[in-house]
Amino acid sequence: MGVLGLTGYIRHQRETFLRDYNLQNTKLIIDGSNLIYILYKSYGIPFKSGGDYYDFAAKCKKFFETLTKKCHVVPIVIFDGADDPSDLKLETHLKRLDQQFANVQKIIRGNTFILPLLADLTFRNILDKLGVAHASCLFEADREIAFLANKFECPVLSADSDFCVFNLKVGFIHPDDLLPLPKNCTGNLPTKIYKCQDLMNVFNRNPDGLILPVFATLAGNDYAEFSSDAFIRPMNAPMAEITSQQNKKEVMYNSR
Q1: Could you report the per-residue pLDDT of 61-89, keeping only the tens digit for each?
Q2: Which class for 208: exposed (0-12), middle (13-18), buried (19 or more C-beta within 10 A)?
Q3: Per-residue buried b or exposed e for 116-153, using 16+ beta carbons within 10 Å of the residue's own CB
Q4: At 185, phi and psi to the nearest 5?
Q5: For residue 217, which of 29, 88, 32, 81 has the smallest C-alpha distance?
Q6: How far apart are CA 160 and CA 158, in angstroms?
Q7: pLDDT per position as a tens digit, 20-68
Q8: Other residues' Cβ atoms within 10 Å of the Cβ of residue 237
């Protein structure tokens, strides 16, 4: 669903939050719905006039063969399913549809990227041909991806900032730190990995508990939008008191 501004903040402070990591000899839980977009765009594959599915299929095949044959990585790809029947994300979906319509007009005049319609099907066909394990969730896949990553004690590959607030045992790899793959891979893929413990260390907090989900809600995401004119002090304050003033919500952290 995404946490507003969190990815940009972490990547801007990469020396604090990103650690060196060699991707090899491990399972890798992949956010499939996210990777389709990232792979197509990162390799600069033509997307106008319906897209170049032959080139995209070749890039997908090379990506997974590099992981499995050269780095001995076992990829497990998990896709989002249907929309949440609660309609909690309805407003977000409508906004994204409006943006897609706007992009259709822009693509005629410039180079605004739009994922070709059959990219998803092409990607899944390559997974089937290579025998890569993959599954679709009933609804949004974030929690299932995090569960599998902790179960197998392996990293997650995704550009979704939601994984910045999951307490993952091994961590979270952003595709920008992995793609495009080097031409000559020597058995491992040097990349960067993020762990939420590093974010919590900045605020002297333990990642266990509810502090990260609460933070994500305050920052704003696809389910909740927080708006306040109040100044929110650093998170190392021990307690919070919620008050109401002139019909506006204010959050005030009182330090002892």
Answers
A1: 999 999 999 999 999 999 988 766 666 66
A2: exposed
A3: beebeebbbebbeeeebeeebbebbbbebbbebbbebe
A4: -95, 130
A5: 88
A6: 5
A7: 999 999 999 999 999 999 999 889 898 877 789 999 999 999 999 999 9
A8: 14
Residue 175: band (very low, low, confident or very high) from pLDDT cuts 50, 70, 90: very high
How many residues are recorded in the chain?
256
- 95 within 8 A of 160, measured Cβ to Cβ: no
CB 156 within 8 A of CB 23: no
pLDDT for the residue numbered 210: 57
pLDDT of res. 64: 96
Start-end of CATH 3.40.50.1010 domains in the chain:
6-202
CATH number for the domain whose boundaries are 6-202? 3.40.50.1010
Measured CA to CA, the distance from residue 51 to residue 45 in angstroms comes to 8
DSSP 229: S
Backbone angles phi and psi of 27, in degrees to 5:
-80, 160
Give me the sign of the Cα torsion angle 89, 224, 212, 176. positive
| Beta-strand relationship, 74-79 and 248-254 | unpaired
Give the DSSP H/E element, type plus range, for residue 225.
none
CA atoms within 13 A on the CB side of 112: 12
